Fold each of these.
Amino acid sequence: MTFLWSNSLSSMIYCFLSHPFIRLPPLFNLPFRQNNFNAVRTSHYPNDTSFYRLCDYYGMYICNEANIETHGIQPFGRLAHDPAWKEAFVSRVTRMVMRDRNHPSIIFWSLGNENGRGPNLMHSRRALHNLDTSRPIMYEGGGKLFESTGRTELTDVVCPMYPSVGDLVTAGTRFDEDRPVILCEYSHSMGNSNGNIHLYWREFWDVDKPRLQGGFIWDMIDQGLRKTDNSTHREYFAYGGDFGDEINDRQFCINGLFSPDRQPHPALSEIKRLQQPVSFATSHPFGEKVIRISSNYNAQLSIINRYSFLSPSHLKWTWSVTSDEHELPLASSGFHIPDSLRLICLDLSEAFINVSTCEERLRSKYWLNLWGAIKEDTMWAKEGFLVAADQFCLVLECDSKDSLGCNAKGILSSCSTGSAGTQVLESVEDDLTIKVTLSGMNVKNRPLAVIDKQSGTLLSYNLPGGTPVIEYSNKDNPKQIKGGLQPNYTRAATDNDKGGTELISNFLSIYSFLLYLDRKDRSYLYYWKRYGLDSSSTVASICQHIQAIKGHNGKTLDISLNCLTIETKRQRELFSNKIIYKFCCEGNLRVKVKVKPRKILSSLPSLPRIGVSLMLNKSLYNIKYLGRGPVENYPDRNSGSDLGVWTTSAARMGYDYIVPSENGNRTDCEWISLQDRDGCGVCVYSSIDTENADGFIDKDDNIFGKMNCSVGMYSQEELHAANHTIDLQPRPNGDHPIYVNIDHKIMGLGGDCSWLPCVYPQYEIKAKHEFCYSFCLFPLKPDKDPAREVKAMAKKSDR
């Protein structure tokens, strides 16, 4: 049995959840069960008795923890050795056991939290065994300074706190150990967090590591308190320091999977997927979620049932096939999994009735989606509630004779090869700007584009009809351009980005010193500030060279720029950027970027991101994209986000964390469209990062690639400067320009803990080599669907 744990900390907000002495409502346990959790640790004290009755009723397991915590007493573990405290230790443990031992939901006892190791705890263990020997004991303390090892003689379960995945594997494969391994705390959910958690669950589910049996995520609820701002009368969730208290840990209790009003964080969809009781697999040797489909359209899958007492047959199963052109499925149908079945074969032919040619097979992407839902009402969920889901990429194979002459690359052209009438592109240059005009457009009114010659920033980009798309502002400082299209290497720091030895030193200087000796590092934000890459620093772009080159018959115009990104405070060069803007007379714009970090950045643990930022017209708030969704996801937290076409808006694409930070990203995006209420707008699609000796794609053709996208109502600088949601003025759709990030790469979130850097190397961005990427923007008319327009451009380029 693998345990899917959460630490339970709660506060009474409008009487919705628990204060230890208030009777809990019957719905208390639903968030646990409905998100595939099966156990709770009552950290760090026993709960009200009604909680245990609810867990008995709903079938939740409990690790019941004694009300003993002494980690603030130095030296660590001193009270556990002090004979004067023996009775206090023993009585707290025995009173807990005597009160709660008749609850079947309790399967573990805990001697407390972070008390070190000493005789008083051994006396407590013996006293507990005198009352109950039917349940094992979990206790993490002792064996090592501070966070300890979780594998002393005091515990029956190896239960370390916040180990890395590597340390987890080591604990579960030691030859001198036979106790099960259950993490007492892991995946610290502080703000935008819970990266890397899929790596833990890869090990938990590994049949070759049977002693690895799950862990308790820290924790369930953000412990913020609702407060009203006196000046605006707006409500927000407050934390340490917001009540006149001078000694506090600020937002260190804002670390749950749910907000105080029980709204789920985006990370919860990832965790629910990883912990689900049923999943599927293919015969692929490396576990890839890819199914090859031949002409019979059959998909064969093996069933992985992780229920202890049930079979998958008690769920109602449905499959659907979606494509890269449609948000709605091409087809869907129910299917049944008999009790003893371990292999299923699904007939998907219904989804491909209209897919008759090899070209259609190779140009489109298809996904098989599987859902398992509750068949009938239960005590914890209504009929139709989703329990398990999975997705597989479908690869449609062609007969060799059908594939002759069929181009499978899906090549896109940023410019049409056809005629665009008599219109030609011109460049009009003055001391400050280069204006790109299309014959018939009024230069003084709205040219196709304006490029700032001093910074290289694309100040504006307008559709051929004159509708503005990209905008800028310099009203606060004429020399500082906000908006436009310009390289972006920063992000609004998350709580995990701020985690490092300098954070720990604020409240535990000895620990900080020991970590320093152990070669632990400072936070990512510390290094970003040091080199001017945090969102509060000022960087400037200086254009060293700019050249306009007109293409054949004036149908294209290339503007090539060589720019430097400078940290203004110390005038240090950070990046050299080679940018090519390729304009086409249809209004299409292709952007090629080559980024070379300067040597000074080679010591950085990771760059925040590599990409561009744009400020768009406020009317373009309707969003559709092809990528992972529907909620935000990041490179190290996207296992629970499915690929497909998703619809959202600028005001809804992100998430309002109690402490504002980087948010709203979508990974594996191929295109994103932004349109106004009438359907007029722009589409951005990505290219693959193949390159020649100069760092650019050899041909004018653009091959589909992947990018990260985020759209929101606030700039990175505004998010970084805000401490509470109240610090950001409400901006509904259509009331403010829109901020867009198109990223070649973005650093992961991390999440092993929030007080040390913990993004894994594969999700960091090392500034030790060049980066090359490309993307295109093209106009969208009201009656045009972005997915089909992108496909149409692919077909057009083959002619």
Amino acid sequence: MERLRNMLLALSMLLKKWMLPLKSSAVLFYLLMLTLFAWLAWYTVDLTLQLADNNRQLHTLAEKQRHIRTVQVSFYQLETGVQRFILTGNATHLDAAPQQTASLYTALDEISHLSQDDHLQLQTVATIKNGVIRQLAHQQQYIQQRYKAGNSGQQIAMLPVDNTVDELLTNLLEQTRTGILAAGDRQTFYTSRLRLPLLLGGLITLLTLLANRSYRKRNRTLQDTMARREKRFRSFIEEAQVMMFIADLNGNFTYVNKKLAETSGYTREELIGRHYSIFLDADTVERLRIAYTEQYVYNKPHTNHEFLCTVKTGERKWVEQHLTLYRENGVVKGFQAIVKDIHEQKQLKLEMERLAARQKETQSRLQAILDYSTSIIFIKDLQGRYLLANKPFEEINNLEPGTAIGYTDQDLASNGATKSGNSDHVVFEKQQPLKVIETVTVNGAERHIFMSRFPLFNSDQEMFGICGIGMDITERVIYEREVIAARKMAEDAKQVQEMFMANMSHEIRTPINGIMGMAYLLDRSPVNTRQQEYLDGIKDASRNLLVIINDILDFSKMQAGKMVLEKVRINIPSLVAKEVMRLKPQADKKGVHLSYYTDERIPASLTGDAVRISQILGNLIDNAIKFTAQGSVKVTARLLETDDHNNTHVGFEVQDTGIGIPAEKQEMIFESFTQTSAENTRRYGGTGLGLAICKALVTMQGGYIAVKSTVSKGATFYVEIPFCSHADAEQEQETHAGPIPENLLLGKKLLLAEDNTLNQKVAYYLLQQAGASVDIADNGRIALQRVLETNYDCVLMDIQMPEMDGYQTTTLIRQTGSDIPIIAMTASAIAGEEEKCLKAGMNDYVSKPFTPEVLFNKILQSTGTPVTAIRPAAPVNGHTAPEGLTDLHYLHTLLKDDTIYVRELLQDFHDTLPGIIEELEQAAALEQWELIHYLVHRLKSSLSIVRIPTAMELAGTLEENALGRQHLNTLAAQVHQLTAILREACKEVAMEIENIT
């Protein structure tokens, strides 16, 4: 087979060589001949293989025949020896019995082996073997009887003759002989058939040779054509825009093209026979002579040279020469070259080299500046080896000048260098700047060094090292500690109140989010009437509590003077209608008729704060419904006047038929935490902040609010607010409040910028369930790149992210000219956070925790899509929080008992938690408060999904203390307390993962 394969390969290569210059008809002919030859070869090989297989069968049958005869002979010899022993009693007749028995069984085994492919023969052999065993057993019985009789003269019966074995052996032998004869016939048949392919092969070879002769003749004609083409090609070379020449081995020109003559200023006649040195100075001539000699001696195929040449006019030009050996009939006769004018490129290269030299000089000067700088500066590679270290660094680490370069901190430890491997590791892993305060001992005194480490990236954004810049801040550290202590003692009650309210509302939001999320999902499942009543109660209570929290937050902002009003275009009639329709289900539930009227003269587009106007109207309408048991509530908006500043004044009235307000109470109801009576507080609930907030918002917008009421007859609240006119503005598309439908976000392409894996997966799940297509960016840099590459409908932007936070990312997006809607997402409850997001260029703001309805509505409002209907959410199964540290009720509810997804999220949390624990303990050991604040903030994001209440509370305290550098003496202990809780919780999460099927 190998020989045949090589033969076919050689033939195909030969045909390929022949066919290259031939036409398609010749190619088809040779392919046909090759196909026929291949078929004949296959046919011959197939016959040869069949003949070889037949020979193997013939050999097997011959071996089987030989072993059958061995069995017959051995069996006969055994039987004869036993008969003679019985007759004579001479035991020598039994001496050969063991060898004969062994030969008999060996032959039978060989027959069995050779008959493996014939089931019937195997059965026959087995029968023979059993018969032999029986016969040998009988022989043993008679032998024993003969031994017992001895010389007593007792007559012993002769061994009975059993012909069964002989008959079976005879039949088997006959079958084998028949097989041998058949194999012989097949061998004759295969041998005769081999003659046909040999004859056909000869015929095909003859036809191929005859055809080749004809095609060779045609090939000569083709060669003549090629010669003419070569002539035209030489003409093309002659007119080419690159210089070409041929020179003999002595360097004298034998051919130059037109371009070379024109460029050099010489005629061809002047150049032919002249030496190439006419263009070169002596040094260049010698250099090229050596190069040409080496190329000739060592038979180099080609070389490249750059040099200055002088043309006839005396002008010097840089050229690049590509030189090859010129051969005739395989013998080197000279050199041929292509020469390009590279004068401009060379001049540019030389200029760049001069710039590089100047840059090197500048770098030397920079090093001198670094050495005389008061800051500590160094650069390390990814292996921690120092690439640069200035003089202050060497001095503070007690190092000799230049000894740090190429060494790591471990290498320099014996010289007293600062060990900063832990901080470097954080920068390497996170690829983010790290600022720490390190304490070193200099001349026996402790010094505090503020060290800023940051990663260095090349043009491909690949990290190649880190840079550290440090400053001795010992005096400042001492001063700051004193200032911090003094500031802590001097905090006034207003600041404490603001932080308390913000923190309280933030902590309450976490369980409320779980309650509202579960109620939202449960509302989408089929429930009976009683369950629906319970569910409505949960929803009403949670909404009321959320209103209270929002009131507290707004009040906190106002008290701190951080409430900022927007100025956007507003459609007053649409805004009034939206608020009325939003609260109409609440009125209908109580049997209160809610209606509204808007003055047609109100301009379609005014400028003001739509959110705050909606908040004012919402509060007033909600109060009217709440304090009206039966009757009606009517909302009216009228155009009043236009003042000297071109402001359009609009008056709003909310009139109800409720319980009314006593005259003596009508002034105090606008004060903080005040209601008309304690009975009303118990009966109707609330914080007493709603009207106070309304009054503050109205006042901030330059308007006023008043009330007119009679007890038991109702009340009328009147609000007047000035707006800027925009008569030529386009009327904004109205949005209609209502239930949120399934697949609400179908067709929306969203970008989720979030670095926390758990938050990513939960948000992705909820948005995808609503029909949206979602991409995820792990940090602000990736988010910016995605926005530039892809057209999204909206971006959900987390505020705190690595590499680039939400504020920076939004600013850069806006600088590109993009107006893509951006919605901020943050768990911070500090007053002014929302205003900061809007100031950065974001379109809207969602405070965590949020209900899916809130998030979906924000997305729809930002993308200009009206909300038309709401349908219940998908059902969820109830879960009871397990005993212990972890409470997974919220996670199961949020993900609608999708056990596969719940397990995946828990596994992610379980896998990442040990790393966070280790980083926290390491940061505590190094007193890296900024890093602790960053890690705890990220941890809180995960704990908002996988609830660990004790850890969440402690993490909030840690985050606040680390950010404000407060209670630093107990901060490390708090970190260890937190990590201990997390370790136990990690075990519980592992058990929960195992329990999920």
Amino acid sequence: MKSPKQIKKVNELKCVIADLHDLQTNFVQKLRALQPFADNSSQEVGDVFRCMIQRQNYLCMYHKRLPPILDMCSVTSTKIAGDVNKKGAQDDLSSFRQFLQEPLNWVVESVENIKQLCAATPAHNPDLHKLEMLYETLMTESIELNAVIHAYGRGIVSSDIRKLRMHSMVVELVNPQTDERKLRYLLLFSDILVCAKIVRKDSIKQKNSVINERLKSIRHKEKSSQSIRNLSSQRLHSKSPDLLENSDRGDPAVRLETKWMIPLNQLGICLNQRVDYDNLKMSEQERKIEQIKFSISTFRSGKRHLAEEGSSVRLRRLEHSITKLEGRLVLQTPQLILPISDNSGQVRQILLVTERERNHWRTALETAVYQVKEGLASKSSNNTSCGVLVSTFDGISEKRTNAEQCSPRTTHSEMNELLKKYQYLIRLNKTGMALLKDHGVPGITGILRTTVHGIQGLNELDSYHVWIEVDSYAQFEELARTRVVAHQPNPEWNQTFDLQIDEAHRICFTIYRHCDVFAELEVKLTEDCICNKVISMPLKTKEATPRTITFTFSLSLCKPCEVRNRSVTTKHGRVFGHPLPDLVRRDYGEQFNKSPSDPKTHNDSNKSKNIRVPKIVVACTDEIERRGLREVGIYRVCGSNNDIQAIKELIDQDLEEGIKRLPCVEIFVVASLLKQFFRELPESLLTGPGSIALMQTAENPNEENRILQMKTIINSLPGVNKETFVHLVMHLLTVNRYKEVNMMDLSNLALLWSTALFQTVTRHQSMERTPANLFDSLNQEAAVSFQQTKTLHIILQAVQDNFLAFEESVKTRDI
């Protein structure tokens, strides 16, 4: 420590610590002065917490100056620690390094505390906006410093400082065969992914009590000596006071224990999957989840009545039952799998509830893995002694780079020590399973009428849809999806959904462009926003260059008697093999005979602008555009015949229930189902005369005349047929936009769809095949099939090139 440079670094760090101390003292004084006025809404609470921004800046300065000091500590061994702690033991070095890093823990604590403070602040309080701005600023200031925890005691240099990137509670599918699930806490650091087991501290008490009971049994049976009794008695009373003392100090009721961890340079992310249930098991699982939700809602209703009566004993029992049910629900609800593999080929299956949550984790993991690999590649190129960078996705490589050999491995015990810093992040209910929301503050219960109006600020002609999630049961769950609005700037939906919610606190709108997340908006459910008024909120897109758009919606709380009766009108007839006009009339009732421009239907959010496309067609095309555009061979790869038949029978029995089931069905099954619907129509979509006229027109050598004649023929089709065909054409063009990924260009799509849309030879000619005419018959069918494919390709290409345009009224879809 004789070097002037080292002395300067220590002095700089000392100055930062002094400034932090003064700032913290000032903050505490202001906070105490604020306490008598806590109930006064006019008090500027936000100004008091504004100094935390300055503290965050000081913490960043402290972080930059700390690594050299830690490196000096590793060089000077235990001398510095001995001078400070006056002990000189090897443990002093670790405790001293931990002591120096303690201020870094304030970073994530500050962000989390301000987040909780925002959640507890009433919406009408003028300080809420300041606190929300403070939260955003703290997140921005801490982006390079978020929860920095130095892996002390290993001599790791400053470049290896570990940062927490993302964390959340998840469910791990331990055994897919038995559907065994475990609650886990997943933490993504800058260099490693850690999956931790959540251990309740009262379980430690139970283990101790079991040990004590065994000791008592031994004493009773063997009548051991007084020394053993003294020893057992000492063990009996040694740990309980500590646990009670910890609980009195307000320590977390749980601890994290490392279950498994994967270094990011050895981590692989597999394709998204879904829990593989057959139809029978899927129905049983859905019934089980709905039964748990019903029980929770019933118990919550009883809890509210008991709270009014003041029955504390029964209330506690009921709360315990509710938390147990919530825990079961948290384990059973997730069905979306995010598979994660290591370099040995072992796959860990993480279960998540919503597609939004899975997308967040996948994006974070892909970004972190890319950064680690880029860092290793740059080290390898800058240092020739580092060896060759070897991919770790195909198994354990026999070759190891010098950089990998030099980097120390983190043991489970070291990781457990690190995880102690993050125990306070976990919010559990009393069963240790479900995530607590808003510290037990009662949420909104009832029927939330949600209307999605539209978006302003989007000038591109593209396809958009919105998913709606609500956190009724301790976690976000998808409750509704809007239709897909295709090829329209500033898309408008004006769709209303009646969402049954129970103790909900937040609603989230996720806007998709095709199958990509385009923007997100999470709204706290307060009296100010549940007012049946149109709310316009700005939000930033998730594009490479973010921009600000305006999303409009409205929320209101309805009584059950105000909800429109939605009788199922599709149980009285089958769907497949039924004439198109009858299907549309059955789907939309009186709307079928109304013009889209009728003033009585134009402003009604629940009535369609386009009522001439069957619901099953719109449901299938929307589902494919949501999650099938990147599937290789979509419409070419056939789905399972058993699955197709099962969903087809369900749709014929109950159309609405079948449409609800589509998101759970394999996407290739949905694509095959749509093609089968058109094949089984009594009359082809383009009709017999229309098919012949279009195929003849395709031979017209004059392109301009050919396009005009085709447009005339399409416009002459029956209204339902024309608008359904146009809807399908626009959908196929959307699929074609992803041809580089799904390998489905216009030629392939025309080949696969022509026989389903045109009148085939066997439909209008009952020519009996005999050995004499078999060859001619096959040649004729082949020639007709070729001409159909050619004609459909011409139509698709003309629409794509804007040579063939359709009326505006058919560009907006609805169910």
Amino acid sequence: MADDQERGRRRPYSRNSDDSDEGRKRAEEPSAKFYKCHSDGSDPSRIPPKASSDAQPSSSSSSRGRSFVPNEPRAEYPSTSHMSRGPPPPPGTSGSGQMDAPAAGVRPTGTGSESGGPQGNRRQTDRYDIVRTRPDDVVTKQGKDGRPIMLKANFFGLKTMPQWRIVHYHVDISPDIESIRLRLGILSEHAKLLSAGYLYDGKQLFMTKVLESEVTVLKGQLKTGGDYIITIKFVGFISTVEPRFLQVLNLILRRSMKGLKLELVGRNLFDPMAKIPIHQHHMELWPGYETSIRQHEKDILLCAEITHKVMRTETVYDILRRSSQNPSRHQEEFRSNVLGLVVLTDYNNKTYRVNDVDFSQTPNSTFSCKGKDVSFVEYYQMKYNIRIRDHGQPLLISKNKDKAQKTNASDIVVLIPELCRVTGLTENMRSNFQLMRAMSDYTRMKPNRRIERLTVFNHRLQATHESVKVLTDWNMRLEEKLVEVKGRIIDPQKIVFNQKRKCLPDDNADWTKHFRDHQMLTTPSDGLSRWVAIVPRRNGRDLNTLLSNLVRAASGMGLRIRDPTVLEIYDDRTASYVKEMNSCTNLDPKLILCLVPNNNVERYSSIKKIGCIDKGIPTQVVTSKTVSNRSLMSIATKIAVQLNCKMGYTPWMIELPLSGLMTLGFDIAKSSRDRSKAFGALVASMDLQENSTYFSTVAECSAYDVLANHLWPMMAKALRQYQREHKILPKRILFYRDGVSAGSLQQLFEYEVKDIVEKLDNEYKRANLPPPMMAYITVSRSSKTRFFNRESNPPPGTVVDDVVTLPERYDFYLVSQTVRQGTVSPTSYNVLYSNINLTPDQLQKLTYKMCHLYYNWSGTTRVPAVCQYAKKLATLVGTNLHTIPQSALEKKFYYL
């Protein structure tokens, strides 16, 4: 109610108080009205940067004369820049042939539009990357071991006519006509000659029909007078392993889905009519579909996944108004609140990330559009019939996330706050248990519910005339039932505790209950001694409760916990913790425990910085809320395991058949302070058959580097550590590479893998050793593939290596974990290089074993433990530390 009253009397944002009649009139109008417009051209303004190297917004009060970099509508058609036959395509033009229109908000790719240049969109090309990474000597990638299980997958078969193929033609029209719209109209006059379904972008033509001649000449008369000649030249057939093949298939699918009346937001289609309002949090959930068509092992399959988009009902302008309530700091507060936000502009259904705020410009500022100075107010009124209400608001700056390290003008987009709807969740929302619970009721669908939704999606496509016609025109038919696939369940793996006592996990791959009667594998001989606990004076009783439970839990696991040196502080300010941590180092503590009242990020980061960077001492942060939890004994058990790990010891192990094996995991996390920076973390096991030690290292890198240029130095450090411990380099290396996007797979395969193999050979030559046997495997957590065991989840250990895998890869899916809610997500593994002499069965089983060794959880994880450790470490450094930790911690799990 207070918010509603505030809206009724609030004023528009302005640098100066606006008490005019116009100002009062604007204040009475709603600030968060959403406008629905067609995205049929260039939208908000892309502006060139200043002459300065950092490309920050200009501080001048006027922007007259600021001009746009020309840009044409992007094509949704396959790139033809690498065609072996036919001339390279010319650059695209706008529908009018003009090249000086505002450039931002160009037509989103994949909308089904038939205008734009044939070069396509780089992000669209990445999405349909086909990279042959399957080693030539791999005869079969299918395993045989394990208990068979029949599964369904979230795929539908696409049936085609016999000898079905996509044909590529190049089209020239004489005289040359710049307007793509006119080109489309001219070719459509000869549609009877073409197949019922075809794609044409003004230069390139794709269809399933083969014309009688390699060169077909058509003639006609222009409506404006004069004759024209169309020359259609045969270029070739598109192979099923080319990216263009996938692009054409997915464009066909997008056309067929038009009949479902969905809205394109970003790359995916959502159903606003089925939105789920969550009024108390000013947000909506839009259900939608994430789809792709691809050639799989034997058939062309449509993958369909249910997805949801969080749509906030507030705009950036609402955030601006709230920030203006603090006049002395309103600019600073607004900037901090919006930087990094992803916003949606309703007039073109595109999303942008806010990189900066330009307080020197307003909607009244002008730019050059088609040779004229036009204000943003005038532009949006003319282009979209949108009236900008507050002419005093600042402008938002967005940079192309793929090119933000450059300063090209075409990479910068200007946005109006009141036209930008906020998407996603804030940190406060994520920490709101009630909100996340309400959302999970809709987003975490159980397998039976997901199957039902997928079936409804299929039926809608089959029942919609427009959808059926598109597929029929292309001689395609969608199967009604989900694809069935045969999987295998890997045998449960034995967990090894102290004195080689072994146990089997339960059906959910969990062995927590075995801590009651098993001791941890290794613990310090003198227990946890010489350690410090820092606690606010008012929380002294909480500390005593925690310590008594810790001692009880740890003693049953073979860890003796001695009394810590307790340092009381008068308050819970960050500075108080920092002061005590700095002063207690004369005690030479092995570990510092800090009891804190809540999850304050600044305090947590300060504690971790002192421990990891300044002192090189492991730290454990526990909130007082944890102590009051009814499951305190269970929590104390987990904390005791963490404390043991942070001192460099191991709670459990698994049975490993290979000796001389070093397992590596690598991941990258962006810096939360500077999005242009990132930190790569590498974690390595030091032959788990001989001992249970690990090694970790971190390197700073650019967030825009596709390849990890610092990877080899990190790997070399791990090799030297292995050599120090075992007096020899490892015989075998199992490298799990996480943090790889589909678009970077080609470069990763061609450069990173080859570079590592070459440098490994040189390293081993210097040691007078033969090259190691190595498997280099990419790990993808973002796969949209789902498997169903009837109407439930597959059990842990389920592996799938056929039907829905890809023929150009040596890949497999593994369900290694159990989920308590929703549908389990399998992890996709792609073997880019292997001379390790392991069969598919052995490699799959070894990967599953590695998912049992993450010591923050007494159960299996979604990825091998070294990957999860690397992710945990990279996130800690990127979010809290922002610099490299001390090398003294490299052999400890200080990041757990």
